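Comment thread on ticket #2218

A.B. wrote:
> Attaching the input chain for the structure job we discussed in standup.
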Amino acid sequence: MKRFNLQLTLGLFLLAAIAVLSLMGSHMAPHESDFSDNLVYIETEKGRELFISPVPPMRQYPLGIDQYGRDILSVMLHGAKFSFGTTVVVALLRIIFAIGAVFFTKLSKRSKFKIGRKSSSLHRSITGLNAVPQFIIIYFILYGINFNSSLSVPLLTLLQWLLLVVFGVPGLIPSISEYVSQLQRSEFVTAARSNGAGPLRIMLVHILPHMKEKILLLFSQETVSVLTLVGQLGIFNIFIGGTLFTPAPPIYHSITHEWAGLVGQYRFKIQPGNWWILLFPLIGFIIMLLAFYLTSRGLELTVRKKYHNTSYL
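C.D. wrote:
> Ran it. Output below, let me know if you need it in another format.
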């Protein structure tokens, strides 16, 4: 009898809900992403009353209105696709490029297709980047670009994705390389080589299909890593899609309303009387992070159980 995997089930359920919000959020939002009104009329028990932002959660505005007159529910729905999309796309590209780097190294002439031979100098140079925290490098690269950028939002977002991918790949290479090396020593690979299969065919036809569980597990782990990194950058006002900055008084705005950016921009304005402004974006970000973590943990338990805790998994 199979044991029910609660973590995987709950994680996938949350991810499915977040994915729907990401795809449909802009259509579901009560207001446009740039909507702002500091004076709003709201129907109350006393009749139609005029409120000045910020406005606490009410029936018409379930998550309230921030100090800039924006409906928090609307901005979160518009920003969901940037948070979720960045996490999924960057994690996927990290896996693809890491596998490509490992395969290229093992198929290079310098490696001479010998099992167990040391990686090429390119491989060693890339993995050497592991010693430097990703956050520090990405933060200082984006510091002079992200604030009031002259780049368009799509172009700046692509640049941010590229940096997140490039500096995340080195951390994946050692694990994937070791796994591929173990598969190269497997009997089915030896048999294929004996039958005349070339190195490229062995990699693509025999090794790559046997990596599907490993790839899925690494992808789920990378989603947690990417979203955590995006959250760290958001705390320091590096928002996905760009940061609007005004010096007097110093105010940081997330152009795309991605959830880490909302947490970053609202944390300076939180006061005892307007707790909802930071609370709801923070809860949304935590739920998204929890969804990716539960999925990753659930997949890990499933894979480990399937292969009886094989060491290279």
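A.B. wrote:
> Thanks. Noting for the ticket: Residues 6-86+134-169+214-306 form one domain.
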